[in-house]
Description:
Elements: H1 5-27, H2 32-40, H3 53-72, H4 80-83
Helix pairs in contact: 1-3
Amino acid sequence: MTKSASEVMHDVLVAAVIDGLGALRAASKGVPNALLRDLGAIHPNTTFQDLPAELQASIQTSVRAAFTRLQSEGYTVLNPKVAGVAPRPQPRPTGGPGRGPGGGGRPGAPRDPRRPRPDRPPSGKRPPRS
């Protein structure tokens, strides 16, 4: 039976957390105070380089294992920039209210009579006919 991507990622993350905790214990060398100090030093702004070397190695191994596991389960993991996949085109901004001359809106929608039309000069100032 094929596992869903959510189930595979769940398994991968649980394994990564358990491996990370084991790496923290190894980094403290069995000293409880050192383990508590290392745990207390981890906060939301901690960078990868701030982590103990054992934990860094564990995270790198877990990332490689995650990609391998996803690929072995049949999921494609690729970087679109490397694979040469054309990016999706960005939608063009349409002329909405306050966006350039004449505003915009839906085609065929009633025009605001207070706004001058972009293809005509303001009322009362028409150019003379020749």
